[in-house]
Amino acid sequence: MLRKVCLAAAIVAVTAQPLLAASGVDPQADFKAFRKYFTERFPKVPLNDFVNGPYSMDEGLRKQWKAIDEFPPYEFAVDQGKQMFETPFKNGKTYADCFPNKGIGVRQLYPMFDEKSGEVVTLDVAINKCREANGEKPYDYSKDDMAALTAYMAYTSRGKPMDIKIPNDPRALAAYKAGEEYFYTRRGQLNFSCASCHVQNPGNHIRSEVLAPALGILNAMPIYRSAWGGMGTTSRRLRSCNSQVRGTPLSAESPEYRNVEYFLSYMANGLPISGPGARP
Amino acid sequence: MSQRRGVSAIIAGGAFAALMAAQGAALAAPFDGQKLAFDRSKGNCLTCHVIKGGDSPGNVGPELNDMKSRFPDRKELVAIISDETKRNPQTVMPPFKRNLILNDQEIEAIVDFLYTR
């Protein structure tokens, strides 16, 4: 049995399958094709509604959601995050010292390409960089503290249009391209790419879960999920998507995940931040 | 597996024990097509297909019904389950044989089961 599993892992072929992607690196052309695909496939869904994930696809779910949102299950996390955000570090500084606009209403700027390190910096990574620069221990990327802090920061950005920049820097373009490739590459024993679920099958059910469309799929992060009985960060979500296809989840905020976030967030430019979200 | 069930059957005693033993025997049968098709760690076909008798199915693929009349050629069903990407490179249906999720005997058992739907 064990041997069988190892063999399976070794055999799983990785075949790149760009569905919509152009061959060169042309984010703007990708952006147009991506948007065209979703708006033509779902002509009845208002553009700004795609950020509501499965609810944009399913009337029944939407009704349940409206009922849930009367008492949003992520409210405790937003409150906790606000308190964390406002509590000074041991050295007297605060998160406000690390972010543009003192950290209020900036969620839509992330992931950001950092010209100094040449890497993509997500909001979660920026938070930990801030903590470490101020002598504090970094938070676990998959756990509640990070979820609470990002929930509060997303909340202060609600409604602001996603605003991701890809500077004309070969490293930024390479990161974008790598993210795009990761998104369309099949993996895991079940042979799925991210696109298999979120481009080919949004609105369809796998078991009883309704698949979210890839357009605007990160705008609601972090999310409260009833199935988790709590909050989850982007890292937690991506790792469980990888596990579902019996693939090996990458470490949270690995370069691959940051790059795929960069790609997906760029595709969502102009769509409003809706986080934190509540999901079934 | 069947041994463990045997032990619990003795502990439970009486009519219940008989029931458990019977169930143990059924579970121990080498290739139960329905079980293989519904099991989340095996076929897990319900993730994507409505199949009569299965709970909370998805709808990524078509309902699997009238199998005998729609797929009179058994080989075709075996081929679809083994590796549907050969017929349709874009499909999201996992290549069950190629990726060693199901072996030949298990696939045959699932086809037997599908022919009852």
Essential attributes:
heterodimer, A: 280 residues, mainly alpha, Cytochrome Bc1 Complex, Chain D, domain 2, three-stranded mixed beta sheet, two-stranded antiparallel ribbon, 41% helix, globular, B: 117 residues, disordered N terminus
Compose a concise summary of this entry.
By secondary structure, chain A is mainly alpha-helical.
Explain what the structure shows:
Chain A is mainly alpha-helical. In chain A, about 40% of the residues lie in helices and about 5% in strands. Chain A has a single domain (about 50-280), classed as Cytochrome Bc1 Complex, Chain D, domain 2 (Orthogonal Bundle), CATH 1.10.760.10. Chain A is built from 10 helices and 7 strands. Chain B has helices at about 1-10, 15-30, 35-40, 65-70, 75-85, 105-115. In chain B, helix 5 crosses helix 6 (about 105-115).
Secondary structure: elements and pairs:
The complex is a heterodimer of chains A (280) and B (117).
Chain A: H1 2-11, H2 27-41, H3 59-68, H4 75-86, E1 112-114, E2 119-121, H5 123-133, H6 144-155, H7 170-184, H8 194-198, E3 205-206, E4 209-210, E5 223-225, E6 230-232, H9 234-244, H10 255-267, E7 277-279
Parallel strand pairs in A: 5-7
Antiparallel strand pairs in A: 1-2, 3-4, 5-6
Helix pairs in contact in A: 4-6, 7-10
Chain B: H1 2-12, H2 14-28, H3 33-38, H4 67-70, H5 74-83, H6 104-114
Helix pairs in contact in B: 1-2, 5-6
